[in-house]
Amino acid sequence: MSSACDFISRRALSVDASGIRKVFDLAAKMVDPINLSIGLPDFDVPEIAKTAAIDAIRSGQNRYTQTQGIAPLRERLRTDLSREFGRDVGEVLITSGVSGGLLLAILATIDPGDEAIFLDPYFVMYKHLLNLTGGKAVIIDSYPDFRFHADRVAKAITPHTKVLILNSPSNPTGIVMSEAEVQSAVELAKKHNLLIISDEIYEPFLYDAPRGLPSPAAKYDCTLVLRGFSKSHAMTGWRLGYAAGPDAIITQMTKLQQYTFVCAPSPFQHAALKAIDVPMDDAVNEYRRKRDMVYERLSKKFEIAKPGGAFYIFPKAPAGRSGAEFVAKAIEKNVLMIPGNVFSEKDTHFRISYATTDEKLERGCEILTSMA
């Protein structure tokens, strides 16, 4: 007699449950934990965006939109991105979060056997999306400084290499690529005819880059940019992102969205039009202050590459302990973090999100430094 397990695909079995989700589930069972695990802004959606979403719902903007998203939002984003990058970025696709954009991008560009290169540590989805599509993840060690080392990447390029995935600011390290690093990545992409997928979801959260985020899209037409509103405007549950890049790729992503997500949530697209004009400087300044506070405290006891963006810091576990072992001990003391092996082929570090209250950060840092 068959069991339900007999019907599960090898594709599904090839992917492990996210270590992040496991920690989220654990957090739900704990009483008032010092939760430094969640990659979730601790401010709320701007009021003007909430009002716009409510107004859109009440006025009947609850049906499917065009697959590619509503025209006013796409046109506004195209104008803003074209101004930022100094060229017409072409069509814009509104996606169901940047995660949805990543899935569509991989589906649209990767055939079985194609290789995609990205740095280790990496955002958890990259490797698993490639596994799901039959692609090959080529993971480049960036330890200990987590910078983009062009020579390491160049050695990994083969005739099967098709895509270079960049993530700046990075999740989990918070590292921001420099202008020189971006230029070296673009030169490699041009030389080897690679598509760059630039995951820029944390783009607003820059603490030491007064001229803004260095993006490969400003230097290389064959760049697919993925951004969204989840982190910048705390719309994590609204599932709203966007993609801009070569027309041929956006066209295929749009077609694939038709058969997967259908479209991004309609009322929230209207709300995003209002959110774009809300200055988020106060939130950025607040996270810069939190970054400085956590770095100053933890760097006394831990080896850390100072993050320049996002709201994460990625310390090395004390000598003699793996990242997973150190996190397990921290959880015993009611401090929740993510072990580094969730984001890496190594198990030497742990990720902290400082998107929480000063009180919890202070207490968390005090406990962690006492354990070092």
Describe the structure.
The chain is α/β, with parallel strands linked by helices and 372 residues long. It folds into two domains: 4-44 and 280-371, Aspartate Aminotransferase, domain 1; 63-275, 3-Layer(aba) Sandwich (Aspartate Aminotransferase, domain 2), CATH 3.40.640.10. The protein is 40% helix and 13% strand. The protein is built from 13 helices and twelve strands. The chain has helices at residues 10-13, 19-29, 47-58, 71-85, 97-109, 125-133, 150-156, 179-192, 247-258, 266-275, 281-298, 323-332, 358-371; strands spanning 34-35, 92-95, 115-120, 136-141, 161-167, 195-199, 223-228, 241-244, 312-313, 335-336, 338-339, 350-353. A seven-stranded mixed β-sheet has the order 2-8-7-6-5-3-4, with helices on both faces. A three-stranded antiparallel β-sheet has the order 9-12-11. Helix 3 packs antiparallel against helix 10. The N and C termini lie far apart (54 Å). The mean pLDDT is 94.
Short structural description:
The protein is α/β, with parallel strands linked by helices and 372 residues long.
